[in-house]
Amino acid sequence: MTEPDLTAAVRARWDALTKPQGSLGLLEETATRYAVIRGTAMPSLARKAMYVFCADHGVTAEGVSAYPAEVTPQMVRNFLRGGAAISVLCRHFGIEPIIVDAGVNAPGEKGVVDCKIDFGTRNFARVPAMTREQAELALERGRELAALAARRFDIAGLGEMGIGNTTPASALLCVFAGVTPTAATGRGTGLSRQAVARKAAVIRRALALHTPDPADAVGALAAVGGFEIAMMAGFLMGAAAHRLPVMIDGFISCAAMLAARVLEPRVEEIAFYSHRSAERAHGRMLKALGARPLLELDLRLGEGTGAALGIALLETAVRLYSDMATFAEARVAEALS
User: Is 3 designated active site?
Assistant: First the structure.
């Protein structure tokens, strides 16, 4: 069945269900997109995963975060022990958490997927965050993880953890969307007004130092990115190749999407945007992506928390689509034409 025919078939079923046509709004649109990605008019959404990509950032040396860098490996342990917010949400919604070490500045932990590129990026206010070869390796490892995920899961959530990672995300927004450092920079985990200004100045300096080219996404990631951001970009690219739906979390994972779509435009076909976060520039980022998020809850935690809620909402939409009775089955009169 062609994609237009499949879309028409799914919409015809929605219209035949016992409700006014279109009355479930974005739920109908979202479930229809999911069915088209999966290539079936009656899709299942039972096998769910949350990939949490973790890494450290050398730019924290510039005082851009409210938390010390050692929190990153501490939170990795918290994920593994089931004590983090994303752990609770994954248990509640039946999502399998997969914790990926993309570049944590600590020895690897038992239970993580070891994709470590290095022990954190370098301070991109002084030197490039990583080499081009490291950026390419991070992309490749992300693609490999997505290929494996496509064999096991119906959908994957995209989350992250890395102290200081709103700074590279803001820098990438500047690169790919032409946003000024001031407009792209927010409070992250709770910076003061003075610290936000310092963070914007760091980004401005870094962009002037490296002059990243938006047409060269690999070079931009190497200059001002993060290992977890590059690996998420690779994951999105791999997901597109295997038609694996991905629920994107917030500001950091959307920055990965900005890079990924330069390298592989098809990533836009498999992506769902879970929420608009409280991070100041996330609205600008979503606008640059042409994205319509499912939720707006003033979240700014990261970890994939918004993506977990988005998966639950999508699963609800799919369940409505598959389990509701049609007018004919329920013997309910349809609207008069």
Answer: no
Q: Does domain 3-43+320-330 have CATH number 1.20.1440.20?
A: no
**How many other β-carbons are positioned within 10 Å of the β-carbon of residue 230?**
36
Spatial separation of the C-alpha atoms in residues 55 and 10, rounded to whole Å: 40
Chosen CATH of 48-314 out of 3.60.40.10, 3.30.1360.40, 2.60.40.2890, 3.40.50.10210: 3.40.50.10210
Burial class from Cβ neighbours inside 10 Å (0-12, 13-18, 19+) for residue 13 reads middle
Answering whether pTM is above 0.90, one says: yes
Active-site residue, from 303, 315, 329, 334: 303
> What is the per-residue pLDDT across 196-221, written as a single tens digit (0 to 9) for each?
889 999 999 999 999 999 999 999 99
CB atoms < 10 A from the CB of 219, how many? 19
Give the tokens for residue 271: 């992506």
| CA gap 181, 175 in Å, rounded | 10
Quick one: how far is CA 50 from the chain centroid?
A: 10
Helix and strand totals (H; E) in the chain:
15, 6
User: What is the length of the chain?
Assistant: 337
